Queue: 3 jobs
Job 1
Amino acid sequence: MSTMLIKNGRVLDPSENLDGELDLYIVDGVISDIGKGLEANADETIDATGKLVVPGLIDIHVHLREPGGEAKETIKTGSRSAAAGGFTTVCCMPNTNPVLDSATGVNYVRAVAARDSLINVHPIAAVTKGQLGKEITEFGDLRFHGAVAFSDDGMPVYDAEIMRLALEYTAMLNMPIMNHSEIPELVGEGVAHHGRVAMKLGLRGVPRAAETASVARDIELAAETGGHVHICHVSTARACELIAEAKQRGIRVTAEVTPHHLLLTDQAIETFSTMARVAPPLRGAEDRDALRQALRNGTLDCIATDHAPHTDIEKNVPFQEAPPGMIGLDFSWALMYHEMVGAGVLTLSELVARMTIEPAKVLNLSGGSLAKGRNADVTIIDLEGTTQITRETIKSKSCNTPFLGKQYSSKIETTIVKGRVVYSNGQCTKLEAISHP
Amino acid sequence: MTEQQSNLDLPLPTGSAESDSIFSAATPYQKRHLLDLESLSRGELERILHDSEGFRQVLFRPVKKLPTLRGKTVVSLFFENSTRTRTSFEVAAKALSADIINFSVSTSSVSKGESLYDTADTVKALGADFIVMRHHSAGAPHFLANLMKEVSILNAGDGCHEHPTQGLLDIFTIAQRKKRIEGLTVAIVGDILHSRVARSNIWGLTKLGAKVRLVGPRTLIPTCFKDLGVETHYKLKDGLEGADVINVLRIQRERMEANLFPSIREYVLMYGITKKRLAWAKSDAILMHPGPVNRGIEVDQDVADGPQSTITEQVTNGIAVRMAALYLLAGARDT
């Protein structure tokens, strides 16, 4: 039996309505007791005085690139990046090479994660074979082997009938389809928001309707089938309205928003900065403001980073030739705390909920809560600390972020997965020290 | 005498143009690169245009050559086909006694997948002082300029972004004919969406106090262009009425194939500049075109060859403007 006591921290767990100076007692990786001034002998005691203790953060949309894209990221480096960012669970997208469209692929990721990962990694499997949009995958078997959702992310599920059938089938399995909801014809060769900045720079624009028309379609198909559609990385004000209305009608739609869409606008690309090239593109200030409101009122269920590593070589090219995407796992907590709580968009408790229990609910994951009997996935945060984003501090294999060189308030102090410290004070724990029997 | 001139040990050819010039030479040109007109101040634009007048006179001398850039190497690096711009830069560089080398992209390792950075780095190592670059990607010269501090980069067209020397030569041509820029109304007609010429004209002209109208079908002039401080017109007549200058852009067949307009025939019917339509503008309006002209499409034969047309003057002026650009960049490099 191994035991751990986390003492005197401010425990904040929105799922249990907890907020107070409490102790957490962990036995064999499971939360055994929670209360004031617990008297217990423990193998390991962590003094969390003055620190915030929250359920381990959850990111339901990351790209770990393995297999096939190991130059950008591996499950090992991605898990280190996540641990450093306070994340104890991530769900990785299947747009790898080969695509995770079979039990073999899903089992490969789970096996590598069991060997190399510091944190919980759940694979998301493809909606269609090879993500080619033609034939649906073996949803039932993929679920059996550990897929937590289905997505062709990187691309939308283009064919409306394939989408309808996929939603119909997965409704039976109670599994969501996570769609990168954009109409490809409207995206075309577009690389930036269709607006003043793109027009000025001579860059091909992506109109808002590329997203909104597709979101409207997905909502109608979810309504028709009773399936659960999850809209990835919402970027427009109008999509938020559509989602809010759909939720009111009782349609099973959930949605996520990225830190970069909450913080940046298309002004970030004005210098042709490839670091700020993402899909969907950074949009106007009115969209950014609407996303913030929608996150606050629950229209957007959760924050997801869409952590998308790319190498310097790939990003060190002219704007329209660079692949879209930016990393986010290492520092998204600090970005969100500094900018969302700091600006009064979210309360601290709301922010914690949108990075713990809310994403867990979207994908029906067991984490996001410090309730007794749950796995002891815990993150300890120093709200007085600062997070510096530099090439030296980033644990991801890639450094593609427009936030490089910036500094934000608060700092991830310790990350604990199943009762084991996987990250503490700037250092990831060596894998050998935590390897599961 | 300015610092730039003394450093180069070569004064500008002086003449009546100096005193007649509507442009001020008061602002020194201190930028190492010429990437776009958006980032230039009014003073910097005026300085280039002012100096262009002196260089233009050289082109009408029996010996069209100055020793200004002797011993300097200009490499032209064109990732897109071009005859006019490339040749114009070549003539300009030669008139300044620079050595000009054409780096052949299609037959080089670029076609084997070499990155833009590596290509430019090679060109730099070969001893280039200036790189004249045309590239299909917007911002490509900006990308290189960030990486190369020792070489001056002249943007000869980057994707749909800018073509600064074309913008300058257009403005220079207008000034030659109209003796002013401030207060003029300039109508740019055609495919604005894909035009780097239009964007450079918009920045240069608005900074110098002209009013710019964009004229063409809505698919080629999205409404957000209004945010750039210009008027947009979808009816040709509205766009031309009262204009001092009509700058007609080349229409490309690919755009029709992409359904941006239904047919060349319909484009000609709605936006082709005929003699009759030219009369909608002011009676002394000038008719410009960056070339090459599709005669009978965006502009009629008799209009292109008529007295209001400046098409051939633009070509000559292009050399003068590019000489001024090379000269001023050399001065900025040496200070």
Note: Chain B touches chain A at residues 38, 115-117, 135, 137-140, 142-143, 158-162, 193-194, 196, 199, 222, 224-225, 227-228 (CB under 8 Å).
Job 2
Amino acid sequence: MRNDSLLTVEGLQTHFFTEEGVVRAVDGVTLSVRPGETLGLVGESGCGKTVTALSILRLIPDPPGRIVGGTISFDGRDLLRLPEEEIRKIRGSSISMIFQEPMTSLNPVFTVGEQVAEGIRHHQKVSRREAWDRAIEGLRRVKIADPVRRVREYPHQLSGGMRQRVMIAMALALGPRLLIADEPTTALDVTIQAQILELLLGLQEEMKMAVMLITHDLGVIAETADRVLVMYAGRVVEEAVVKDLFDNPLHPYTQGLLESLPRLEAGKGGRRLTAIPGLVPNLLELPVGCKFAPRCSKAVGECWPTEPELREIRPGHWARCILA
Amino acid sequence: MEPLLVVKDLKKYFPVKKGIFFGERAELRAVDGVSFEIRRGETMGLVGESGCGKSTTARLILRLLEPTAGEVYFGKTAVFTANKEEMRQLRRKLQIVFQDPYSSLDPRMSVEEIVGEGLTIHRLAKGKEKSERVAELLEMVGLGREHLGRYPHEFSGGQRQRIGIARALAVGPELLIADEPVSALDVSIQAQVINLFEDLQKELGLTYLFIAHDLRVVKHISDRVAVMYLGQIVELTESDELYRNPLHPYTQALMSAIPAADPRPKGRRMVLEGDPLSPIHIPSGCRFHPRCPKRFDRCDKEEPVLREVSAGHWVSCHLY
């Protein structure tokens, strides 16, 4: 693992102990984020991408969840060994997170100004007046028109795109070095999604922060990420710089995902979509060997008994497949 | 060719309260003068962002909502003035598949009951014959007879959507309205369900009205596409033509906002300013003008009409 990383996660295992059995939501994830880069985490529901993010901030509800293995180090500190008080100082200041649904992450009974200012005062000893002024500055930075008026409004008075801008303002108020964005545009209309992504990329450049972008949308990944991790069933199945991943996907799951997307340029009836057969896997009934084998069109005998390792096939391009 | 469905100047206004006092009233113009036709056997796509009126249009066609004005003809039957017997027939011939496969299936009913309900209501089959027919329908949508006695919670999202499709097909519809049928599904499952829609159309000669916010999906499955903005159709044409030659600035922006699934130089797209407007405060003139990068002096004064600017290509914009 490189030592120039801002964040290093090694062999992370986060399991949920439920009545039906142990759900291994994240089972051996290794990743690193370098200062200023955008790392994309892509996968379908239940692949472990959100649980990975929540584990980094130690926000896994316990019980039923628990981080049972691995290490997470941020800026040289081992996050898993920090006392609760210390991790609380990191959350929202050096590492921030924004979520998919801005309406449920904002408190409906406080104005947006109060909420942005509260976050600032939680971490820094500043006067109410100054926190309020910085909240207005924050709204201006995320390009909300007329911030002096908007700062006194309640979340329900804002549109979805505007609420997501407020969330971003809150997350960036203290100048984090890492922003974790979990499906930040999924609930938004496509024209608003374009605005928010452009805003995020601009702010990242301006503030020189790293972004971990979690999404199910390969298009969003292609447009924003520098490097990409593809996750399946709690594991990383492929890792590459974005261009290599799209030009030359090595794992059959990644190939399947790319082929199953409808393309604008193809005419009707021109191309039948190549669907990945079967279902998104049930984490309680995973096969012993390669977790993707039951849905894989290229699976051979050796895929079943033992799980393949994540191997570096070409410099910087890793895949968990014996055929790669 | 005789169109299967004709929609003429359809309108639906909802009353909304404006202030807290004085009972001030305002109107939400969800659908505001929509006209189009669907030919037998084709797939018409309806695309637009949230609040553009696409789902309301679907509900009006099915008469699940009463219209404020306008007409809908299914074949020769006028839907809004149909009598009870005509309505019974229409309910068979027009079916809908909903977006959310979790809330659109009754959790207390078995798959056999869900899919077979229409057969009973329309007295199409009963007893053993009904079970047999339901089993056939399940096989047609890629499930099996072993699923007959199971309940919705035992299925994944994609499988539930297949159950919803089987339910719609049970009564032998001619027009199937699909309202965001794949947007709640994972990418790998989306492709399976889209392929299923295509296969069923070939097999059964169905006509589709396919509603979605994802232009990629709509473009893929549709013969023709209508783009809606604030309750109106702003552009309507063949789906290939819409992709090659989008005329309305809103269509151009929608097209450019779609993240392409290959990495390209960043920041090359046309990003629209502002939020989608509210259907309560409709701007004067062209309703898109406050967000339009190509607006000129005529746009905030005069409302454009949907005109055929080249064969089969309709657009509502003063630029053409």
Note: Chain A touches chain B through 48 residues (CB under 8 Å).
Job 3
Amino acid sequence: MTGTVSARGRMKRLTDSAMGLVLLGSALVSVTIVLLIGLFTLKEALPAFRDIGLVRLLTGTEWRPGQDLYGLFAMIAGSVLVTLGAIVLGLPLALGCAVFLAEVAPAWVRAVVKPSIELLAGIPSVVFGLFGMVVLVPMVRGIDVPGNAGFGLLSASMVLAVMILPTIASVAEVALRSVPEEYRQGSLALGATRWETLRRVTVPAARSGMLAAVVLGLGRALGETIAMIMVIGNAVMMPEAATSNPLTIFLSRARTLTGNIAVEINYATGLHAAALFATGVVLFVLIMIVNASARALLASGMRRG
Amino acid sequence: MSTRISMLLFGGILLAIAAGCGGPGEGSGAAGSTSSGTTENLSGELTLVGSTTIQPVAEVLAEAYESLHPDVMINVQGGGSSVGVTSAGQGTADIGMASRDIKASEFEEFPDIVVHTIARDGIAIIASPDVTVSDLSLDQIRGIFSGTIVSWRQVGGPDIPIVVISREEGSGTRGAFEEMVMGEDAVISAAAILQPSNGAVLTTVAGTPSSIAYLSFGYINDSVKTISIGGVAPTPENAASGTYPVVRPLNLVTKGEPDELARSFIDFIYSADGQAIVVQEGYLSVN
């Protein structure tokens, strides 16, 4: 009897260590894949960095592959502006949603609203693009500014704002809910109203998590491709204001870094292809910076919490 | 017990993944022997590389040819017209595809290439249905697309800004339009809205008031209006008779005279059946 028990124990330990190895293997494979993709992109982009030069690539505003002009600055500006627009339009909505779900909504409302917001995240981006193309672009075209054809940064920002809403709302909601109940109770016991508690205690306590939510939304916005191609106009030009009102810059057409790759890679050979891979490297670095800052924010939040 | 089963399952999945990764690499080594049969039945492999405009019609032609000659395998790859000429000139592809005239510089680099024009394709100027202008000169079109003409009033319409829609850099249609309409000096304005396919151009023009674009004949439908050039309407008849000015050849390029297999395929394209496919795909027959 004792023999079988110890045999079973040995078998269990063996199973444990084997499972450990298998799981370690899966983790290593994932890391290797990321590394390989990074290295491959970098290797393909090398001729561009060598022949065009990093400075000219990053600061040049002209992109004419036919004449060997490869400047990414207009596209970097396009990506940054459209992301900024999306944050300005989407952030109040997303944070409002998060606060409502975490602090205000009764359980049954939460049970309806939360899955609906999560459903937004599951809609394929080409559907958002289609919606933007047939609904938002004609709407934006109604703004009476010379040269405005509807396709441009504003339409793209509106589409993106909806696309990043679920990311920001759900992460921010988790951050709010992880604030210990004692904080709220303490505040209420001191005579603060619910609004004061929210503004002075809960939100400040969840601040870093909410910031991380915003940064994750930024990363999502920078990487979006197909929906952008469909509504932004794809012109390689520095976005500029059409009238004295600086906000009309958002009616300008632009191209995003992601769109640049997707639109041209089918035809590209030689240096042109290398320049598109270099576009990928720039995007990779931008998103890595954004994600690293999100992690740093989350980590600092946990240390304080 | 159940842990052992799940462990086995896990291992099995990993093995399957590993096997899947190894697969394609081994397979690709087997292909690639070209040999014309000594019997009356042709056999072997033919590679076509180049223009993405010709690619779809070449694929249909290849399929029809393969059903007549089951021992022949035809590979059709994209890459663009320039890639097509270069691959044929260097002999890395049996046949190159170019949806434009071969440039003098290309004949200089590869003096022994032979050009076979298998079809023609007209490029029409299209506008959204609300546009009142219905005829433009080549000079006016050049001005509109380069950005020197910005209002429909400058070409006889109301004072409404013109919205220019174009294809992306590298597109064969854009290349042919630049060559035949824009010429050496004028470039398409950087402010033009770019749409990455013929279909997207059509949809965008149809939905954007006071817009203008250029489009291959094969894609035009009732959702947009066509604009005549110097009084000549963009119809297949006018293109065939040579009065419509913006017609490009769809060319196949071989290094020297084609070998038996390539000759047979090109002859098939020139046959009544082959040209019927060309017309059915929306292009103009060369006969």
Note: The beta strands of chain B are 44-50, 72-79, 95-98, 113-127, 135-136, 163-166, 193-194, 211-216, 225-229, 247-255.
